[in-house]
């Protein structure tokens, strides 16, 4: 029964105009960032490397595809989850609003199977958008700006050869995808709780903004803070530290998967307890 439900949910999702508007918006934002980075990238690099250029000679073009991809990564991790959360939450809130959920439940459909299918649809949608974003970003950045070494400023300037930069960018996309899945899963759970599209969109935006604010907060709890979910959503950035700490990064990403699972379990529980009729 799960597979037909999943197929039906995917069919409904990709036949909604807002789904394609959302995908178009993500790609448009990507293009805007690419052009803005192209015109401002040289200025940013000059500011970063001004002192170093007095002591070192830099050969080659540092304004290249790897740098542009890194800039896009930094620029999208607020806009992208917000768009994804709006579309994902609508999987459940729109059916509350127009009453189709009652019609579905009149059939021999298990509540937990139905809501699990919606979580899986949200997951597939998120993965699809991230794969599309990654492929188009790589294609455009490398075809227009070429390859080259990557320079990143994270407290200190870190330089990575092009091959190393490519590997780190791929890992960062993978880690960032886990963050996106966490946010979209939370948005579906908020939809189950609030039932109204507008309220859920506001709550989702608030959750995203709060997570961004708490990411930089210092609660004076030392190592305990690393278990707080907002601290985990930026784990992708750690792939650009000069010395990689793979065990620590892996732990953070696994913990984020656990938080995602907990959010989904809470949503399934709430949905099963609700009186849809």
Biggest sheet: strand arrangement: 1-2
Number of domains: 1
Helix content: over 70%
* Major β-sheet annotation: 2 strands, antiparallel
Low-confidence spans: 54-59
Strand fraction equals under 5%
- Taking all Cα atoms into account, the compactness measure Rg is 21 Å
Q: Report the span from N to C terminus.
A: 21 Å
Count of DSSP helices?
A: 9
Q: What string gives the helices and strands in order?
A: HHHHHEEHHHH
Q: Given the helix and strand composition, which structural class is it? A: mainly alpha
* Tertiary shape: globular
Number of strands: 2
What value does the average pLDDT take?
85
Characterization of this structure:
The chain is mainly α and 277 residues long. It has one domain (2-272). Helices cover 74% and strands 4% of the residues. The protein contains 9 helices and 2 strands; from the N terminus they run H-H-H-H-H-E-E-H-H-H-H. It has a two-stranded antiparallel sheet with strand order 1-2. The radius of gyration is 21 Å and the shape is globular.
Structure in a nutshell:
The chain has 277 residues and is mostly helical.
What are the defining features of this structure?
single chain; 277 residues; mainly alpha; two-stranded antiparallel sheet; 9 helices
SSE blueprint and pairings:
Layout: H1 2-14, H2 17-49, H3 65-98, H4 100-105, H5 111-145, E1 150-154, E2 156-160, H6 162-194, H7 197-216, H8 229-232, H9 246-273
Antiparallel strand pairs: 1-2
Helix pairs in contact: 1-5, 2-3, 2-5, 3-5, 3-6, 3-7, 5-6, 5-9, 6-7, 6-9
């Amino acid at each position: 029964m799960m597979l037909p439900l999943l197929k039906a949910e995917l069919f409904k999702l990709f036949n909604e105009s807002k789904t394609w508007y959302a995908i178009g918006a993500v790609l448009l934002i990507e293009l805007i960032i690419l052009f803005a980075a192209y015109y401002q990238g040289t200025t940013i690099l000059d500011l970063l490397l001004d002192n170093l250029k007095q002591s070192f000679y830099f050969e080659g073009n540092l304004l290249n595809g790897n740098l542009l991809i890194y800039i896009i990564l930094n620029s999208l991790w607020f806009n992208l989850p917000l768009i994804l959360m709006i579309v994902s939450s609508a999987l459940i809130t729109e059916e509350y609003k127009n009453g189709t959920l009652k019609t579905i439940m009149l059939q021999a459909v298990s509540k937990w199977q139905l809501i699990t299918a919606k979580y899986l649809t949200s997951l597939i949608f998120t993965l699809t958008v991230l794969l599309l974003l990654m492929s188009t970003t790589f294609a455009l950045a490398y075809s227009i700006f070429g390859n080259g070494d990557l320079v990143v400023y994270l407290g200190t300037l870190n330089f990575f050869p092009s091959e190393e930069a490519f590997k780190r960018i791929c890992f960062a996309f993978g880690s960032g995808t886990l963050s996106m899945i966490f946010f979209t899963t939370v948005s579906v759970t908020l939809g189950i709780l609030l039932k109204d599209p507008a309220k859920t969109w506001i709550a989702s935006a608030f959750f995203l903004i709060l997570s961004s604010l708490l990411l930089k907060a210092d609660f004076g709890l030392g190592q305990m803070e690393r278990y707080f979910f907002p601290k985990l959503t930026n784990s992708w950035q750690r792939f650009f530290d000069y010395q990689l700490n793979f065990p620590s990064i892996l732990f953070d990403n696994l913990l984020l998967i656990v938080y995602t699972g907990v959010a989904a379990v809470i949503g399934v529980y709430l949905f099963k307890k609700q009186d849809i009729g």
